[in-house]
Here is the input.
Amino acid sequence: MCGIIAHVGDREALDPLVTGLEKLEYRGYDSAGIAVKNGHGLDVWKCSGQVSDLKRTIDTVESNATLGIGHTRWSTHGPPTDENAHPHTDDSDRVAAVHNGIIENYETLKEKLSEDGYEFTSDTDTEVIPNLISYYLDRGNEPLAAFEHAVSDLDGSYAIATVIEGSDSIFAARQGSPLVLGLEEDNYYLASDVPAFLGQTDTVLYLDDGDVLEVRSDGVEIIDEEGHLAQREVEQVDWQPGETEKAQFDHYMLKEIHNQPESLQKTLEGRFDRDRGEIDLDLEIDLSGVESVQLVACGTSYHAAMFGASLLNQCGVSARAIRASEYDVSAGTPSEETLCIAVTQSGETADTLTALKRAKKAGATSLAVTNVVQSSAAREADEPIYIRAGPEIGVAATKTFSSQAVTLTLLSQYLAEITDGGEPLDTLEELVSDLSELSDAVEQVLQTSGAERLSRTYLNEKAYFFIGRGLGCSVAKEGALKFKEVTYEHAEGFASGELKHGPLALVTERTPVFTICVDDSQKTVTNAEEAKTRGAPIVAVCPPDHEVVDTADEHLYVPDMHPVCSYLLANVQLQLLSYYSATELDRAIDKPRNLAKSVTVE
Ligand code: AGP
Here is the structure.
């Protein structure tokens, strides 16, 4: 977790560092800090709180520094205090470092360095890094050699950027945590993610695990894990700077909900032929021998994985969605005929990457369904399928769920077509035709939704339940996750038939039950009735002429389309409900407490 940014070049550094931190704040917002190299040495400013707090501290600073590093933190080792904020310096203030990841052997290193007289002032694992570099500088090494020695002593996952007094370079390393270099004429930016410098440049170079870098204003040197000088491909990203702005919206979450007509269009572009009812994912890998599918994911991506697994099973392809954090204890051993699909927006979620690596080690073929080009999952898997949703900044995932679910829908039909025993849905033609109308249908829901009014009707209830069956169950679970993330209210999503096996004990007139029902499942209607009989207000999320309408007290309507599409539209209604409820409650919608956008620790 955490966001890191570094800049070196011929322009002043403080400005791009602060802007970069603002763009990276979705990765962590417990504390923030900056270090720059000035004529007299290093200047470090850091504090607990958000980047806006840091900005107040440096508001009056005048700096001509052209080289610096910055960090925004999501705490792992030590609470979010000023002392634990990055950058961390060595005890002689010659080296400043920012770090994303975990140094697993930091206790051993700290003990050794303490015995050698190096002093520590924080609870973090990171503080060993500048002190180790200092240790090697003290033993006569040049800055680059000192940095390389220090990095080779570290176990764990990290992206690190450092400034060292007396040197005009940024020294950086990547091992298991993202780090991308932005190249602008005579200016270089290193960051955890592209939006940090997208306002300056869209020319990037993705680093590999094991890479160590020296970045100067006149060039970059990359040393790979074998110790050889390495070349990495320079690429253009197709994200626009405006995509990382809030524009006219109060929050990124609302912007990203409203972006869905466009993002879905991009997801679907060129991937199916409406006239011929065919799907073309342009995959190079041969998946015809696949006998079973494991979809591994966390959080919202797990709900998209459930959606995909449900469709695959409907098509006779044996599939299971597995929580990535549970993979080693509940997945069993995949075979060579297993396809493991890592579903991850960021492509950097540690639990998901670990599960993917395990599956690969056991011989499974793999795909990564991800939003971030060249992310760790995209590189780790045999082949990536990009969901093309564009940058998502709000911590609560919205548009990427829709794009993941749509991508997995296409993939499910493709796999059903090419594998033994699989058979695409007999409604495939209708599905393909309705997918081409999906963007317009989302727009219609956004324009007509009653979610804002409803959020006021059911404010401050005791708990919020969401029920659905099949595809509807994944939407119910996602609806509940979204609701709890941004409102901090208690919400649960259930398979509708499970209500009577326990959760019904919680149902009262103070627990609205959002019933997601877009197909002809009579069972869900019955389950809603069971809750209603116990006094629960029922909100039906359904097409206007659905049978469940009569059971419900309130409604959030969706167009009557192929169930795949209608369920995704139901999810859009629930996204709006969560957003407006959180607005009523005055929550920190884009940065919910205790959370961060991508979780790079297990
Ligand atoms: C979504 O709203 C959450 N913030 C979270 O559950 C997220 O989906 C999960 O951490 C997985 O992230 P990923 O898709 O980047 O792997």
Notes: Residues 298-301, 344-346, 349, 352, 395-397, 485, 595, 598-599 surround 2-deoxy-2-amino glucitol-6-phosphate (CB under 6 Å). The chain has a mean pLDDT of 95. The longest strand covers residues 95-103.
